[in-house]
Amino acid sequence: MSRQAHNSWVVLSPPFAERSLARCVFREHAQRLAVLVEQDADDATMGGALEAARGDVPKEERSTKLTAALSLLTDLARQRWLVRVTDAGEVEVQRPAGERLDPRREKARLRSQELVKRNEQLREPATRKFIESVVSPRGQQLSVYSLLRDGRELAASLRKARALPSEERPAALRWVIDPYLQFVEGDERCEHTRLRLQDIWRYFRHTWTNQYVSTPGRTMAFLVRDRSQSNHPVIGIGALGSPIVQIRERDAWLGWHPEAFMDFVTESPSAKLGVWLNKTIDTAIGELFVADLYAEELLTARDLHAPSVEVIDRLIAYGEDQREKHHRFANSPEMKRDLRRERSGDSTEHWRARAESHLYKSKRALTLADMLRSRMVLQRYLSGSPSVEAVRRLLANSDGVRMVKKVLRKARADRVGIAMADITVCGAVAPYSPLLGGKLVSMLAASPEVVDAYQRKYLEQESEIASSMAGRPIVRPSELVFLGTTSLYGIGSSQYNRLRMSAERLGGRPGERLEYVEIGRSEAFGTSHFTTSTVDALVKLVQQSSNGQRVNSIFGEGVSPKLRKLRDGLDQLNLPTDALLQHGRARIVYGVALARNLREYLLGMDGVPDYIFTLDDPRAGTEAISAWWMERWLSRRIESDDVLDEVARHTSVRDGRYLLHGACVRPPAAEEVQPTLFDDLVY
């Protein structure tokens, strides 16, 4: 899409009857919003305009369609989309032209987008109740405030360390700040405060610019704490989560984007590629439950080794039929697996039942059709032992190229959720944040101790989708070899810039580095600029539709059920879906390679990762990273009196119910927008 098209005016024409009250209210609301955007009105004023528009409609004439349209239009105005009503009475909107804004203005605009949802969440009664539960001491349980370090004391201690000779300063700084990692597991409690570690983590997560949401799939949260002080105050928090399945910039950098991979294998064809293709197809077919497909007479055991076009066509037709039945009959609560199920018993019966559901019958049949078609092509060119010449002939044929890409997607899908993770939360809290504590937390997120903890946590975990496809427990390797993340804003992240250290300090080889590499910018596409009320209204609209495709939010059903629901809702309103989902906030994509044979291991060509650091003593790695951070960042940072003055600003003095401290969560009133210190943190 060209830049001009990217910022063109688009028409919003919900299917309201001509001269209806709904059409008039929608148009008049657009006119009010156009003025408010021009005046740069705040979020509360926009919300007031929405309530006024709703009040213009008698209760008996209000509809889900009008509610969704008004709420969506208000969200766009809040994000500074331009709004206008043409002479012909058409409502049009235009995405903010971010490239014409100066960096500070653009950052402020994006922060306002995030704060809308964050403040909406902090106003919720359940969130307020949670905050009150951890702030108030109860019996042996201390207040979460006991985990906030007083900035005046910290600044004074750092000034004393700064006054020492340079050779004495490192040891002195370790007495002032002594970081360590603590992983958040189950209902484990802090030994100093008796608070649940999960509650501690969640409390500090609410100080972020954006709202706190749980994510499906694998997740591992951790605290970075300071053992130099009583109660071991919190320096920062972090979390790893299952990665986004497809990010073009990341996949190109890894070398497993289809086009990049084909360029690589075409330029350097080898017999190893043929071996890998055979191995991947054999493994994929071997991990599929097929007994019921035999019973349905869709294929025989012989067809697995000598497939035919007729067998493949039958599997495709069966898979599509089962997919249609899934959408008609799926019951979401029954389909969702309780991930906390005890693992002590035999889980085969559970996975067999999952495999025989309409969803996984469809997935199995279609996957098997893909793999059998790939096997047919492979047998045509590589019937015997693979040779370089045979691989060249394969890659010179269009069927061969399509087959290699299909196998690549399968190999990538098998590893993307287990050997890779996204850093979903990462940053320091006050008073450590002005000291670039975010850089410490970021590097610890890629530390040997985190890799080791990830391995131990998922060592015996049965893969949700693979086990459902196999009808039996499947345990994938849990070796983490790549971390990805993005900046919250598209104009740079001071937290990840120049973040690199010698791998030799972690037991690695000379010349190698553990580093955050900027690998591109993501597409400005998603749902984060819509409020919960808008999402709920759109989902309700789809549910009321007689012809909408049912989206069940079942893990394994497909990518981003929320995005699909929003698409369906926007379609119901006859709105330009792609234009409205492009929110205009491109983010910088970062990657951290933890292994030397990154691509080979991720594709299953190598069976064991070759880490750039040693895992023999993971906690020693944490100590080494902490020492590096003090030398590289902290010792230089404390030379600034302005920085230490900022540290001292975060005190334990109370201002009414709350502390004058940047790590204290202040739920905003209906008209408030809480300021935040965390501008460079990932979501």
From TrEMBL:
Region (Disordered): 326-347
Ranges of biased composition (kind: Basic and acidic residues): 334-347
Name assigned to this protein: DUF4338 domain-containing protein
